[in-house]
Design goal:
It is a single chain. By secondary structure, the protein is an alpha/beta fold. The chain has a single domain, classed as Aminopeptidase (3-Layer(aba) Sandwich), CATH 3.40.630.10. About 30% of the residues lie in helices and about 20% in strands. It is built from seven helices and ten strands. The chain has helices spanning about 55-70, 90-95, 115, 155-170, 195-205, 225-230, 245-265, and strands at about 20-25, 30-35, 40-45, 80-85, 140, 145, 175-180, 185, 210, 235-240. The protein has an eight-stranded mixed sheet with strand order 1-2-4-3-7-10-8-9, with helices on both faces. Helix 5 crosses helix 7. The longest helix has 21 residues, at about 245-265. The protein is globular, with a radius of gyration of 18 Å. Mean pLDDT is about 95; it is low at about 1-10. It binds zinc ion. The site of zinc ion has 4 residues, from loops.
Length: about 280
């Protein structure tokens, strides 16, 4: 039985993980973290900030949870791995006839872009990836369409939950899964952030997603940009389409490379320069 209710729990259960509710959405749906390992370095992967419009980023997260449950040794000793399948559970509920928690692709009856578009937003109609406090603007866009960025930066409970929880963990790296541009984009708030660029390179090399800045149109209030502004390496990984998880060949190697990257940084002794 997964433990719940406390933060920073590192008890490993028979399933290989601890599942923890870290907070609630605007629509009062739980936001869950699946925690693997107990190392000192916390690394987080977050799916479906864009909810049901990008539901395959949540099914990717659940596939990852299955994988690390079956292969707990793939989490390096230095690492505590956090997998948060849905940063926007309201949006998932919109496309799954109200599912809360785990769902499968067959739970999404209408997979068309039109049918899932409203699932991009939480129950207040806000685009959560326009609501973070980096270049937040009251006028925000998805492509050329205006979207609601919330009444102010961090007006939305989902983002407050993620921000506070991950800062409290002293998270060392954050990967946000989105779809569907087929790229890896490093975080950076108004400027480049080399540690985020390095992280994007690690994921890109093994996944085959091209590492490039998100330049299609101006994005305000982005989550990975905000983490970069806090000095925390963060990237946005955009899957190639809106249905497949690309687990075997792209995102499993990507995750494992990220974990190894932080594990080797943690175990490399600091060399003191000679005077
Ligand atoms: Zn997205």
């Amino acid at each position: 039985i997964p433990a719940s209710g406390t933060v920073n729990t590192t008890v490993v259960t028979a399933t290989g993980y601890v599942r923890q509710e870290i907070g609630r959405s605007y629509g009062q749906r739980p936001i869950q973290d699946y925690i693997f390992g107990s190392g000192p370095v916390h690394v987080a992967f977050v799916g479906a900030v864009h909810g049901g419009y990008e539901w395959n980023t949540a099914t990717l997260a659940y596939e990852a949870i299955d994988y690390f449950s079956a292969n707990p040794d793939e989490v390096p000793a230095a690492i505590t791995l956090h997998i948060i399948p849905a940063g926007n559970p309201d949006g998932i509920a919109k496309v799954t006839n109200g599912k809360v928690g785990r769902f499968y692709d067959f739970d999404v009856p209408d997979k068309s872009l039109e049918g899932t578009f409203d699932g991009r937003f939480n129950d207040r109609g806000v685009d959560l990836n326009r609501n973070w406090d980096c270049e937040w603007s009251p006028e925000a866009f998805w492509r050329d369409q205006p979207v609601d960025p919330g009444s102010a930066a961090f007006s939305e409970p989902e983002n407050v939950v993620l921000r506070d929880y991950l800062l409290r963990l002293d998270v060392q790296g954050v990967v946000f899964w989105h779809s569907a541009l087929g790229i890896v984009a490093p975080g950076g708030c108004g400027t480049t952030h080399p540690p985020s660029e390095a992280l994007a390179g690690v994921y890109s090399r093994v996944s085959g997603y091209t590492s490039q800045a998100f330049g299609a149109y101006a994005v305000t209030g982005d989550a990975s940009d905000w983490f970069a502004s806090q000095g925390i390496p963060a990237i946005t990984v955009e899957l190639t389409d809106h249905e497949n998880t690309e687990w075997e060949n792209r995102n499993r190697p990507g995750m494992l490379a990220i974990l190894d990257y932080f594990a080797s940084a943690a175990t490399t002794p600091t060399v003191t320069p000679e005077p």
